[in-house]
## 1
Amino acid sequence: MRTPVARTRSRMDPRKARTTEAILSAAESLIGQHGVNGVTFKQIGERIGSANRNVVQYHMGDMDQMVKHIFAWRLPALEARRAALLSIAEAEVDAPSVRALLDILFRPIFETVDDEGVRVFARFLCGVYFSDRMDLRAEFAKTAPVSDRIIKMLGRYFDSKSRQLFPIRLLAVSQMIVSFLARLDSHSTPPRDEQIFQDLLSISAAALLTPTTNPSS
């Protein structure tokens, strides 16, 4: 299943809404290619075919605000998909496995592609992360309650001794999954992509659950 590009919901006039969405889509793609610091408003304006060099800044403010706008644009659809997947999983078993929870958390990103089959949001996340700007995502934590619940469910698989390792391990597997998804391109096929995604889930679940080692042993 492919998650379509999210539509901006607002009371703005249709022309302004179309312009805003075009800017967000272009910025998401460019940041995924060049990182936050490698993109200018001029480049975004050129991508959407605007002769007005100030149109992007007028709509978005600065680049930090641009990144925040993209998160706000994408997150509702991602969270809705996670909620649906979690509901299905909990209807089947009382406690979904670590692998199942990782699937629910990352499948919406796996499914989010543009018209050419490019996983634009996965690439955008990589661009933001490698630009050291993931702090801009933090303020949206309260708008992602399903993700927060899934992460808490994953944390229950760690006992009191290993729980301190959970955030580090989750960050590591998250970066691995998203980075790999960002490299799946339009030349691959849905069956192959799904197989790769399934392998990533298995590897990530194993990494999260690997027994802790005693440094002195």
## 2
Amino acid sequence: MFSPNHNALNDTALHCMFDIDGTLVQSYELDSECYIEAVHDVLGVVIEANWEQYRHVTDAGITNELLSHYSANDQSKYYQAIKIRFLKHLRRRIERQAVQEIAGAKAFISMLSSLGVTLSFATGAWRESAMAKLNSAGVVVSSHMLFSCDDHFSRQVIMKMAHQSATAHQTVPCIYFGDGVWDKQAANELGYGFCLVGNRLEHTLQINDFLDGNAVIEILITFLAASDL
């Protein structure tokens, strides 16, 4: 049950945007492992999961940067080959073990939707990958609300596209839920609020999961109050 405070969000102009991996579903390590394996399959090189070293921390951005170093020719062919191998590894892993939601994510998204809060989903993953993980975890997301690195290689542009689509280009306060330093940086650059999910970095607004819906709502109310200052 949610406290009466959640009524403060009724009919309020607010846009909540969500990352996918590590934010709504427990797939951060899975995603990294499958990607590293795919790169090794195609390029024969072993890379580390130090994603923050890349200029654009998206599947498309990282792949483009890798190919600029390891493949001078036929980059589009190698790009597609890495993507195909990655999806193959991912689907095999999901078939063996379903992806789990971040606790409470499904219920929280449903609650926000019932309150009329504008929602969108912006991920640095490829669309097929994101949908496969969400479906495996039982997190229902309308495809038209999801923007991915198939739309653009830059996380900031992906997020901006999601925001503009969800709000019909109106000026609406936006808060982004993410788990990585690149999520926080992108939100800051765009002037969005940011709520950290998990503990992979430090941030003032932080939750471990979505089980305590009232606590997350209090964060949203605090964010809205600050936006009005």
## 3
Amino acid sequence: MNQYIKSVFFCGVLACLGMNTIAAQTTQPSKTISTQPTSKPTTQAMKKSELMPNKPYHSIGEYPSTFTTATAIQRTIDGLGYRYHWASEGLLEADLNYSPGNDGITTFETLKHIHNLSVTIMTTVKGQDNLRPSPEYDMDYEGLRNATLENIKAASDFLAQNPNTNFDERELTFVRGEKRSAFPFWNLLNGPILDAVYHTGQIVSFRRTSGNPVHPKMNVFSGKAPY
């Protein structure tokens, strides 16, 4: 399976990464959506990343020295981390409250969803269960962003340290009360990992519409830091 998973996996990745540039659902004017106290965006506008080079995925880093199923998945997760770092960098309150309309969720609510996906990615890679319903996290924008980056990095680090992980035996599991549901590891690839890439693309589109595009020198091909 480990040889077969590489070829099928990369075909899925190449097809789905093209969705990163998904356009906003409509061009309706942005609206401010009130959020609950536990999910309120910070009112202090973040500065650009001059003070943030030590956060995970300022650059994508060196590629793995060996090519295995684990390191191939690791590099894909690193690609997500780099994209997310720059998609979520320097968002202002107007960006966080932006919604495309038609009952679409705000940028901040999209960040919350990506965080939940990052938890699923990290726990599954490590062979742990995912609790349902998902825990509620009381974090502002900066806390949410940091936690998401750390989760993605933790998943990558685990794969780097365990390059010979047998994914035939690794499952994506959900526990809801006394019920435990298990799915093949394949579902993590076409599910949470690529879903997180997709929604990161939405953040890129949303912030462009709200007037605060990503850093123009961010390069997903090289994975190098813009500065």
## 4
Amino acid sequence: MPVRHPNDELLLEYCSRGSAASSGSETEAHLRQGCGRCLRRIEQYREVLRSLEADPLEKAPEEFLQLAMDRIRLLEAERSRSRSRQGIGASVRRAVEAIRLALVVDSLDSPALQGIRAAADPDTRRLLFEAPQASLHLQIRQARGGAYRVTGLFAPASGVVDPGARVTLERAGGQGEEIARKRISEGGDFLFPSIAPGPMQIRIESPGGLFRTDPLQIEGDDDA
């Protein structure tokens, strides 16, 4: 014959009233038979009732607070490492995804244009590089000792030059050897007073992105 166990309501009532008040009940008789299942349930209910009747803690145990603080510091360290990895990844992406500034105007290759725009200063070579995000205007003029003076104006499409923007002259056709570097002014201006002739590219770095021009040749007696 299957054993009939008291349901949870009867067991909870037994715990609440106590064994003396429940003397003679079917629950009491069942428990006296040594039913392990119901005795375990009774002990669980009693533990819950004792917890509910206990006074609330005025202060968390010191061990608990220490564990909590250790866990918080661990989570903060993990977040910091994650932000660092994201920052490195963004820098790598910007380096790989350089925005091309395409050469669209070179007064050296357009004598008619040079005559119209530079009649007052025929010894200055003018170049314009463009991209949807920005444009770059260059002026190149021969300086002393066979060097060249390079001035530029960087104009982002937003109209605002990011603080900390820098311009770098690199040797073209090789490993990107750096020739010179300057900070770009708030107005977008920069100046390289003495640059040796040769093939080069211009790289502009700013929080808004990385820009690189088409290769540019600076040399000869009559091109500046």
